[in-house]
Write a structure and sequence with these properties.
Shape: globular
Strand content: under 5%
Number of domains: 1
Order of helices and strands: HHHH
Number of strands: 0
Structural class: mainly alpha
Largest sheet: none
Amino acid sequence: MSEELKQRLKALEEELERVDHLEDDERAMLQEVSADIHRALGDEVTEDDLLDRARSALEAFEARHPALTEAVNRVATMLHELGL
């Protein structure tokens, strides 16, 4: 895993920890996306599954959580650039 991707994943996970006004199901969905990314890097999740879940998470949080949306978007962009 590239160093930049590791940093972006860490930033996403840190942002998840800082956001205290997420509903339990929202937090669970974002944690699942993060776990999916880690699994995808080990070829345990398909690219389509990963992209679908990431898109769903972005759509659900974009208006309510702009900083979190930005962190997820950076990770998604990096994964796309890596061909995942």
